[in-house]
Design brief:
alpha/beta, 14% strand, elongated
């Protein structure tokens, strides 16, 4: 069972994961260890969650932990794995990365598992920045993980939003839809705010109205399970203002622009 977690990298994403885990029910705060070379980063985490353990020593952090999360910039990954590999317990630890573009084959290569007696369970995990407020859409793909390990990983990250297990070839698409997609959603917020201001609202009023509308739309679709078009049909009336607005947006290329943006941002 996954009862303890080491997080290598306490920056924006690593720190958000640590804070989210500490607020959850599955991992005790005292069973979370964060390693980072920058002392002030660790100090800030401990100010908020005093029971989280912190260290500047990566090897010290990972020893004895059930789940090891490497949350560093891609160009630092090999150095980190070179440091921690000698003290990892391949038989009993699940080793995962939260690194954009990381592949399971690359993890195996960095761990040097070819010919190893005990082959580790590994995973690649991609949350989005919504994790800072426990509203991430997280995609994950695993290798050599048991069904129990997969279920535990999903449960842990479902406490930080929503998590989905996908085939590795779909991780790039997940990055485009959710990681890049959160920026696309914010761009819609900005555009709708500007429209609201042109219609007479103050900027802050327009922002609140647009954000609450987005929350309501998402909540309705989650609650009903409907296809978005079915929900749209209930809002539009013959000759009404909503269908006129939708048609104007489509004439300006709304749907093709969204699809084009997702395709352009999907890692090859």
């Amino acid at each position: 069972m996954i009862k303890s977690v080491a997080i290598i990298g306490g920056g924006n994403m690593g720190g958000a994961i640590a804070r989210g885990l500490a607020q959850g029910t599955l991992i005790k705060e005292a069973d979370i260890t964060v390693a980072d070379p920058f002392g002030p980063t660790l100090d800030k985490i401990q100010e908020e969650y005093p029971n989280i353990k912190t260290t500047t020593n990566n090897c010290e952090a990972v020893q004895g932990k059930d789940l090891v999360l490497v949350v560093v910039k891609p160009w630092l990954a090999e150095k980190v794995f070179e440091q921690i590999k000698p003290v990892l317990d391949f038989k009993n630890q699940l080793i995962a990365t939260v690194i954009g573009g990381m592949k399971l084959d690359k993890i195996d290569d960095m761990l040097g598992v070819i010919g190893a007696e005990d082959i580790p369970s590994t995973a690649v995990i991609i949350p989005n920045t919504g994790i800072a407020v426990l509203q991430s859409m997280t995609f994950m793909s695993t290798r050599r993980c048991s069904k129990e390990q997969q279920d535990e990983l999903l449960a842990i990250f479902n406490e930080l939003g929503r998590a989905m297990l996908v085939e590795e070839h779909n991780m790039g698409a997940g990055t485009a839809i959710a990681s890049c997609g959160i920026a696309y959603a914010m761009r819609y917020v900005r555009a709708a705010m500007e429209g609201g201001v042109q219609l007479g609202f103050r900027p802050e009023e327009a922002k609140v109205a647009v954000l609450q509308t987005m929350l309501g739309a998402a909540a309705l679709l989650f609650a009903t399970g409907e296809h978005p078009e079915a929900a749209i049909d209930r809002v539009t009336t013959a000759g009404g203002i909503t269908i006129k607005g939708l048609n104007a947006m489509e004439a300006a290329g709304f749907t093709p622009a969204v699809i084009a943006g997702l395709i352009a941002s999907c890692p090859k």
